[in-house]
Write a structure and sequence with these properties.
heterodimer; A: 106 residues; mainly beta; seven-stranded mixed sheet; four-stranded antiparallel sheet; 11 strands; globular; B: 119 residues
């Protein structure tokens, strides 16, 4: 099984800051990596797919990078609405895995 | 606009089988490039991938649940289902159904249904 490890687990930052969340895979997954945002009481929302492709309608301050085993989600200028938990997910092959999540407080 | 909606019992007794259905509307469950899947989230915890299925293919499961889980599709009703057998309190969670688009991941989600395992 491919394990996904996110860091940090929690993050506190201010409006306008640039923040980065890291996700590491236990083996190479090429660029089959997605990022989701989940707010309290809501279903996850897809932000990024194929490591760096921005889902339609997602603000351009969100970006993703990486390939192989190491990936990052960057929010370039934090907004209050970005307070949420962020998850990475690998979808290499047919058995997929989520990271444990990063709780971001703005 | 595609919509997914989970339904089923919200209370299940230990050792019994949890059965949920996801109804798909606003799009075809038999369209190419889409898998249909389940994700769960225990209260206060992270997301756990359960499995996915193509409308005409075999399902793929989380190895940790594989011995207890079955995912199936009913194209005539535009629904897909989750069965999880021999449940325990550890299976108490918010269960989501979602669409997995090939090369994109889960791009549409249901609102989720909270299933509690308790006697």
């Amino acid at each position: 099984d491919i394990q996904m490890t996110q860091s940090p687990s929690t993050l506190s930052a201010s409006v306008g800051d640039r923040v980065t969340v890291t996700c590491r895979a236990s083996q190479t997954i090429s660029y089959w990596l997605a990022w989701y945002q989940q707010k309290a009481g809501k279903a996850p929302k897809l932000l990024i797919y194929k490591a760096s492709s921005l889902e339609s309608g997602v603000p351009s301050r969100f970006s993703g990078s990486g390939s192989g085993t190491e990936f990052t989600l960057t929010i370039s200028s934090l907004q209050p609405d970005d307070s949420a938990t962020y998850y990475c997910q690998q979808y290499s092959g047919y058995v997929h895995t989520f990271g444990q999540g990063t709780k971001l407080e703005v | 606009q595609l919509q997914l909606e989970e339904s089923g019992p919200e209370l299940v007794k230990p050792s019994e089988t949890l059965s949920l259905t996801c109804s798909v509307s606003g799009g075809s469950i038999t369209a190419n490039n889409y898998y249909w899947g389940w994700v769960r989230q225990p209260p206060g915890k992270g997301l756990e991938w359960i499995g996915i299925i193509y409308y005409s293919g075999s399902p793929y499961y989380n190895p940790s649940l594989k011995s207890r889980v079955t995912i199936s599709v009913d194209t005539s009703k535009s629904q897909f289902s989750l069965n999880l057998s021999s449940v325990t309190a550890a299976d108490t969670a918010l269960y989501y159904c979602a669409r997995h688009t090939i090369e994109v991941a889960f791009d549409y989600w249901g609102r989720g249904i909270l299933v509690t395992v308790s006697s």
